[in-house]
Write a structure and sequence with these properties.
Length: about 625
Amino acid sequence: MATSYTEDDIKSLDWREHIRMRPGMYIGKLADGSSADDGIYILLKEAVDNSIDEHIMGFGKEIRIQIDDLGRVEVRDFGRGIPLGKLYDCAAQINTGAKYDSEAFKKSVGLNGVGIKAVNALSSFFEIQAWREGETKALEFSKGQLTQDMKHPRKDDGVNGTRLAFEVDRTIFPAKTKFREPFVEKMCRYYSYLNPALTVVFNGKKFRSKDGLLDLLREEMEKTPLYKPIHLTGKDIEIAFTHSEESSEEYYTFVNGQNTSQGGTHLQAFREAFVNVVRGFYKKQWEPADIRAGIEAAICVRIEEPVFESQTKTKLGSANTKPEGGESLRSFIGNFLKEHLDNYLHKNPQTAEAIQKRIIAAERERKDLKGIQKLARERSRQAKVHNKKLRDCRVHLDTKHKQREESTIFITEGDSASGSITKSRDVETQAVFSLRGKPLNTFGLARKVVYENEEFALLQAALNIEDGMSDLRYNRVVIATDADVDGMHIRLLLLTFFLQFFPELIRDGHVYILQTPLFRVRNKKETIYCYSEDEKTKAMAKLGKNPEITRFKGLGEISPDEFKFMIGDDMRLDPVNFIEGKGVRELLTFYMGKNTPVRQEYIIENLREDVDRQIAVWILDFGWS
């Protein structure tokens, strides 16, 4: 029988209800803060961005951010301060703000009057206060509703500016939600790189940059640059770049101070313009991929009325993105590079020679790889039909299926573990790939060597990532290894492979570690799986006298029936987070490089007394390499 459809079915939501019902439209992921793109960092950005816009307009040289242990955030700037009579409108009237007037905020990030309102609606506590010319006014809200109103301004000798304070609503966010200091510090560093005259203070730690995007490259670049980074600046544009011996391309892109992590029109324009300028200067029609191989670049543009593809503003759209003067963004970036980069290369012949050598080396490497790639593609074609190590699922990420986001591949060690997972998995959305023991340590190896490795060739084929992330077949790549020394080492080897050759897989949040239970505690009525000694103790207390306790030594010992619990709705996954910078390279060099004596000395100095002696000796002999 058809469902009735009447006037009662038509509903209108006010702004608070809509934001709280559909928070993902405004801030992206409602996660616990363990990933840099989780929604709580968008809320923090929305609070800080207004202060940044004030600084860009020439008001305020310092922004203070305070986050306490309970998660309360406070942001204080020293700009002009919100007009006191409009404090409520700016905090609680959707589509209200000063940025519709391009003369007041010419090149702002937020133009829709939504940001602070989203923070307000998604916070159990929200306070906004402004100081202007010896007076102050403050308002307090809860979940978007006004709770305390200072109806009239009062005298106050505080410095002009605005203060926002908020605590996220834990009825909407996960209970364990908290801000991670490394992610907030990176946000502060980026703010300082993009605004060299600004000091950002986070919990007492100061961030300030002298050379802008040049400092960003120095801080973030993991590889050794082949030449001194080129730093070009102009009205509404700043670019810094260099090359390394790596084959990948790395970009840090910004629009009006917003970190556009997914790129967009400005990145496309830069990549195209860079190739055109280099071809013109050297008078060689090199392949674009050879010209850009190993490039690491930071690009910032300031434009009027930027159009982003979502409220989270991580990708610049293509419409209305014209800088001041009416020139298209593509032409603006192209003309800037044509003039300034061409001039730089003429004035710096050593740098020009270094770039030419890098391009020629990339061209040679590409040609050398042709034969190996042909073999890899043949293996890939065979793998799709004959790969006995892959038990595929029916739904994949690169389709339009409604369950595409649930597509998962488990990478297991050995046939015994993969057998249990295969029998208990959801055949619609869960695939299994079985490794044959420990894979190759790829740290420091050329891509050519990796292409020749059959194990990784089959894994690349299963993931379909050889030509980039656009055709990735699974949304979640889960490393499922035993919770012992061997299993930990296999995790390291796989993560090393991904970081070396497919960092986007981790950077975009696709890689996870499967938590597997260490113990099973049960009686005749109930079974509890425990992931730590503490959980085992609590389970024993709950089940009473003399429960049966089983210590799992490996995934192969866990029956398919039990695996249904571990990879079902209660599956525990730890996301592998990627914080860019020199630390990743240094970490891989120490743990996966050829510095075994140094690593052995570190293990001896930090060895816990309660570690089994035989395991300790094995670790030292193996050397993690």
